Amino acid sequence: MNSRANLLAMAAILIVRGGISLAHAGEHDSLCAENETVYFSCKIEHSQNYASICAKDNMSSDSGYVQYRFGRNRDAAFKFPDAKVPPNDLFHIQIINHFRDGIGKHVIFKNGAYTYVVSNAVQPPEIGIFRDGKLVTTKSCEFDGGFSSISNRADYGIKQGEKSQLDTFDGS
């Protein structure tokens, strides 16, 4: 009887563990760690790469950190900034109104000569990379692969940016 009870207990544990795995299977993948807040994440169309904006303890622009990541996995991802530092003036957020697509957001940051615009002002979201104000490339998110739009939490941890010509970015 004890062995049967032990067997049933082990089966229940396996079922519960399987249920937890299944619950996570429906969530969108990201390059963020479990203890980080996902401000944005998507799988890049026609690739194995993901783009994510991850944050931790980011209640204002001078607390916690915000980091953009791009790649196939957390360890091999391109990261900006390299260190986990408060976003201060590294990142800016803009509320964008593209009337045909509704209201969305841009998270903007500069890395050397390049300016990155992570946009959910269009669907599916896109990442535009600019040099000297000219669009160099666009990375579109998979529509069916799932994405998480720019979180409202980012509004508190990232400074509002100044209006610029990049506000019109819509991937075209």
TrEMBL record:
It comes from Paraburkholderia eburnea. This is Uncharacterized protein. Residues 1-25 form the signal peptide. Keywords: Signal. The keyword Signal applies.
